[in-house]
Design goal:
Layout (H helix, E strand, L loop, with lengths): L2 H14 L6 H29 L9 H30 L5 H32 L6 H4 L16
Helix pairs in contact: 1-2, 1-4, 2-3, 3-4
Amino acid sequence: MSPRQAVDAVTADIRGHRNTVDGTGLFNVTRHVSLLCHLAARMAADAEYQLAPNSAGLPPAETLCASAGHLGRAVAHYTQALAPLLVLTTTAQDTLQHKLDSLDHHSRLRIHLDDGGRALAAARSALEAPRPPAAACAHAPAPLRAPAVRRRV
């Protein structure tokens, strides 16, 4: 599976397993964090592999590193979404104060999940960047030094 296909697969999984305010949503967010961590690690490993010789078929290392950085942001946002989700799933909403507090938790949860989705979309966009032609990727030979000129004093 290519890096772009892997990001698409994780994105499809996140869309298919919604994050609800119950035990299932808590399980889903934890699972999404795991998937995103694995994908970020894979992008970093692919970038390292790209730096080695004979690594055909992968995007440039810079592209993979940029995508891994966006995936790291997605991991951070999904991890931060766990705190308000945990409070919402474990606290009874029986008093007015609890209901008012839950508004803030719902807002924080939505912000983190939306920001995580944007970071995931940025990871996908980074992989869509056009690749430079193969000839342009070849390293130019180092310039030769001009011979030293001796001056007469």
